[in-house]
Amino acid sequence: MARAAKGSATTAGSAKTAAEQAVKAALDPYRRKRDFAKTREPAQGGDAGVGGLRFVVQKHHARRLHYDFRLELDGTLKSWAVPKGPCLDPKVKRMAVQVEDHPLAYGDFEGDIPPGQYGAGHVIVWDKGQWLPEGDARSGLRSGKLKFELRGHKLQGRWTLVRMHGKARQEERQPAWLLIKEQDAQARPLDEYDLTEAEPDSVRSLPAAPGAVAPEPAPETAPKPARASRRAALPDTLQPQLATPADHPPAAAQRADWLWELKYDGYRLLTHIDAAGRVRCFTRNGHDWSARLQPLVRALQQLPVRACWLDGEIVVEGEQGAPDFQALQNAFDQGRTEAIVYWLFDAPFLAGEDLRDQPLALRHAQLQSLMQAVPLPPLLRLSEVFDAPPESLLAAAAKLGFEGLIGKRVDAPYQSQRSPHWIKLKHRLRQEFVIGGYTEPQGARSGFGALMLGVHAQEGSRRVLRWCGNVGTGFDARQLGVIHQRLRAHESSRCPFDPPPAGMHARGAHWVRPVLVAEVAFGQWTREGRVRHAVFQGLREDKPAREIVREAPGVEPAAAPAPAQARAVPTVRHAPRITHAERVIDRHSGATKGELVAWYAQAAAQMLPHLKGRPVALLRAPAGVGGEVFFQKHAKEQQLPGVRQLDPALDPGHAPLLQIDQAAGLLQLAQLNTIELHTWNARSDRIAQPDRLCFDLDPGEGVAWECVQEGALLLRTMLEELGLVPFLKTSGGKGLHVVVPIRRGPDWDTAKGFAQAVVAHLARTLPDRFVQKSGPRNRVGRIFVDYLRNGFGATTACAWSVRARPGLGVSVPVGWDELPQLRSGAHWGLRDAPARLAVGNTPWAAMARSSRALGGAMRVLGYTPGAD
DNA sequence: GGTCTCG
DNA sequence: CGAGACCAACGCCCT
DNA sequence: AGGGCG
């Protein structure tokens, strides 16, 4: 650098002196911190940049490695300490703490600062070049916003320094700033290229200000950064979640909230796989059993996952394939652990992520994806999850020899304690008994009081009927009468039991000949051979009474059918991470975000046919029902797995429209607080031609529900007279939706005009019932039929969508024959709609073959497109 | 809830 | 970083 | 005409 350049940075005369004094003052803090007898750092001086302002970045291995970012201004280097160094990714902002001004000469300093001195350690010139402020740099520096361009070896393009507002730092003269790369040609995502890692070395030997942009290394050669993510540290120990014993399944109304798994009669086992793949297995009390379970440890090592905690139960399978607790103990006693298999049912941590606050359904789905990713080692099993009614599952489980079920709330987090969110339901025993008598009814009861039960038993050479208790519940009034009739027909004076039960005469016992057979469910056999907690199930006609003996539990040799018609919950690939699952989104019902997600997870199979192939619009409610909501039809910035971004040409002038083709997309959107999903009336492949019409029957203030029902029927009749085939669904809100499939052909204006003509006709014919115009004013006492949902870009709530209203109604397809039974447009809500999933879309089964060309209907109605 | 923009 | 805006579109109504 | 509303 030519000494002659010095003059160019300053002006002549007395101004020069003033400027030099200002520089001197500015460098005062710098000098006061250093002892220049001990450090080689320059005390002052240095050259201004040639033809522009200089910048330098020094990599400083002090107590902590950091980068010193310096910009020449007014004769000194304005300096910031950037702990992580500059980053080319505009998304990544780097903290930059402003420090004391340095002399210009410092920009060339490279070397060691001796121990004991300020900033002791090694310094290299990591980058240098020119900087070009955008606008006035001095005022930018003062106001806390500095935009500029860098022309260095490593750093180029546009950057911003922004001062933060934190108070504390300001006062100690060390304001915190952010160093941010602006979006331009030099910007690069961090995960593709990590500049500080790729370019660690000094540039001092290179020319200060390269004329051309230095070639960047190819991204392939950049070492992959091992980036720390927001992942939680994996705990070293984990207590298992335990189930609470329950007598009964949850009430039918809450069934949808529960998933069921078989109860394995073995030992609980928690597996920890660390980041290096080391596997350790712990019992529920935290004992490390890895050494005793070597075959299992080896099997677990084959799972394609690290940094996780898995939860499950180890069992030894008995002869029937059901777990056998005795065999498990024997296996340990004899050191024969290769017969032990591991049923996995939960993943509190997976791939370094803490999933404990995720809904169970999602944890299980992720475990399932993991275990389906590779051929499963034979010792590992995935515990299947069922959503069938627990009664039938319990029966099936019993036949398979399982001791019961574990019920788990679909939306519950994983808690390391005994929790009401997990219940264990032991199956009740169930078998046939011979009826040997009955007792008198008490009080208001008619027919009889209880049936006296017996089984045949061998006593020496004699075969006797052994009394084993009574059953007095489980009958309805009709059964009481019918059975009483049957009993009377077999009445006898002789007691068939041997020995005769004591104390029965006091209860008015009647004996009957031992020919009738009752099926009875009961909790268990008492030691005396009596049934406990017996419930009558029905009379059995198919089994002769003489064959009835006490059955050993769980050894039914008949091949058990697969658990009755249970639908396994389908896997959701790319299931999103759900945050704040416990947050209440509807104060009215107390429903949580987790329940919303769980609903869409369950309903996905029924809902996807309605979503597939159509642009979708979202109603999102980040603050829940009653909070601020917004509609969303487009999205560019965010790409979510399972949410497709359509060709932007479909809706010119906008970001891409969205479409959901996969369950994961539905869940992703639920995670974004999407409560309602609305669909277009056209499919994406021919967006200009709607394939259906929608009529939204929206009752005004004070309209009786019967009128809405009647109105829907009137609309139906009218549409059918026009040769169309309408379908019905609840809106999930106040009213009903009538959906009419049409042949594609007419454009949007024609479809909308036709729909308007239909509604106008309806309103003309029955003006006291219907209005065509919206607005609450003229709508009181009448039904507004909204035809506006038939224009380009208009949408209507999709079938199975939840509605963002108090109570969270669900829009459900129904048959016209069901209309009279509906109680409101919100007949089904989030909590009871799951029960309706079994009916699913069958009321609309004919829709696909019911589309009609609009031409005929337009003629009948006398509607001409274009003529309003 | 996520992203962008602004300071 | 921290706060705030944005995230539809149509026909109402009101001014 | 323009803005807020649902």
Automatic annotation (TrEMBL):
Q: What is its EC number?
A: 6.5.1.1
Listed under GO biological process in this entry are:
DNA recombination; DNA repair
| Source superkingdom | Bacteria
Q: Which Pfam families match?
A: DNA_ligase_A_C, DNA_ligase_A_M, LigD_N, LigD_Prim-Pol
Question: Where is composition skewed (Low complexity) in this entry?
Answer: 223-233
| The UniProt record lists the keyword Secreted | no
What this protein needs as a cofactor is: Mn(2+)
GO molecular-function annotation terms?
A: ATP binding; DNA binding; DNA ligase (ATP) activity; DNA-directed DNA polymerase activity; exonuclease activity; metal ion binding
Protein name as catalogued? DNA ligase (ATP)
